[in-house]
DNA sequence: GAGCACTGC
């Protein structure tokens, strides 16, 4: 018996295409998921033109043995590059770069009326530090920041001890408080407090452009509080794109307020809420505020919402801005009508929302959008010509240097630049941005080889890599100071762009590339590709050189190439129509939406409550009907985190053996359940031995190491599990186990993931039924060698070929039986 | 018989 997808099928996980997706010329949606690519031209203009050539010093390329830095062991890349530079016949040429003496960040040309407004404001403003963003000269470098003086940069913040008892400690704390007062007063934003509050009172929406070190993130919420924006128990909410920022800034502000964290100032992020009823200044992740808006569509407890780091353009921030615009509108209608809601509002959903709030006092919502030095005008346009103000920052100046010619091999160019800096520039550490682990490792080897050939009297080079999958102990090496007479070279992915700040960096090398996820809506396939960085990223990277003193940034590309195309950047763009329609279609197939695209009740509403991929949310609802929700909760939690299995290259055989004990011949899902249960058992054991929580975690950590399980991922999965469990219990779903009935569980997986089914073909390959694509089982699957006739899967990725991952063997008959809306038997 | 940048709920 054969199967075919019903008419109208043939779609895959379009839900993954974010509103920010770019479509390339070959139909691929590019998803630089974390940060948008402002100069969208890179990804939309089709194939990227050859990369700028970076002139290489002859010493690194000669093979005649005369120069100090020669040496074998080049990577394939470096060798290829050498051929290229030989061709240019540049032996003996002096290596130099074009020098720019000022920061080259600039705004796109402001509109005439914004310019006029700017002039008017400037006249009024006089010498104050506040002015319209659009009026900002291209290359302002405001007052220098004294080292270790930034109260604004979250990652720089010292942690202050809470008030203690001893006299010395009290004295110490008093000194701390004095220091904090001084620091606050010296921030650029301090001098414009009154003016800023005035603008907030006058405008419902205000764009604040603040450079690094201006103090906007920590100070503005305190100004608002002092100005009375928290009267009637209202809250000021400040969103951040990253968890760590929300936590560290909240801690700092609580300290500045001389208050305990969780009282007046608190933070709220997933799995970690430190707010109370007394909290008036609340820092949170943008995604969390989105979740809150589901429960309270008017966000009625907030008087002001500050969206910080809006220039980073995460999907969450983008959606949040659109949502806040709507909330603002609803609340102003409500406030204007004095609580009397008439059903003459066009948007029906708005009417019901307002109706539900009748009787409570709701004021208009103040919205402040804070962004680093990017284009404020786009935010302003999006919010109906909202006013924009600019606050100067305190960053040391950074010289930006570009290459004269295009470079075809950025890895080689990076190597060359590192040695040029090392041999010609003064002391200071180097930070080089690369795209991934493999590049970092190979460049590391190359540097070591060349460094060994330096004359003995030269100072030494010490390389230290940092990327997210590197164990934290090894990550910490990058933060250690280099020994005397040694220059530290940090080889980093974009983790060092925003997530971590490495002290001592004076030189930044930016090859201008980044690894990004690409999503193809036609095939539903994801892959990782290397694309040029955005202007925002380049700016952020160069800023890393000016945190402790004047620095230099070497950009290994020409100034004029795509990356400066800020004018062409389309802010707040919509996803493609096809992508929207396809995702709606999938949501309908999952039963989340009705045929007229409304959220279905109860399934759609229940799914929306769960912080999961829609397919996983649906799986939980299906599982409660199949009476195996306990197992499905585990599966969904384990699938929602990074890879659970850890297999270091040097211990591959041991890792494989360790995994054997968890393996189920039915597939990966049940294998994951086995791992989770074994981990729980380990925790139970130490709990029964009356161990403290810390000891229990240690035991789990050890167990993970012994079994080649990634502790971080497992811990995360446990957190997700308890959170989701709470949700499903609240929803009234019945959490029961199917015990040993694995057929029932596999049938349940089939009913839940029917969109992701693959059938074995006569030639031994597989065909994904929804898209008719030819796929292979990924070698990491326990079914890799088992070759089942039919399986459901949870991931479809394209690397060296098309792979499906996370599979479970199913009976093909179940598809038509359990998903008759999608599959029909052929007979 | 394969490799994976970074985030968030």
From TrEMBL:
Biased composition (Low complexity): 150-163
GO BP annotations, alphabetical order: mRNA processing; positive regulation of transcription by RNA polymerase I; RNA splicing
Biased composition annotated in UniProt, kind: Basic residues: 172-184
Domain spans labelled Helicase C-terminal: 417-588
Bias (Basic and acidic residues) ranges: 60-98
Catalytic activity: ATP + H2O = ADP + phosphate + H(+)
Any one GO MF annotation of this record: RNA helicase activity
Domain Helicase ATP-binding: 197-392
Cellular compartments per GO CC: nucleolus; spliceosomal complex
Region annotated Disordered, chain positions: 37-134, 146-184
Start-end of Pro residues biased regions: 49-58
Record-listed E.C. numbers: 3.6.4.13
Primary enzyme class: hydrolase
Entry protein name: RNA helicase
Organism: Oryza rufipogon (Brownbeard rice)
Lineage of origin: Eukaryota, Viridiplantae, Streptophyta, Embryophyta, Tracheophyta
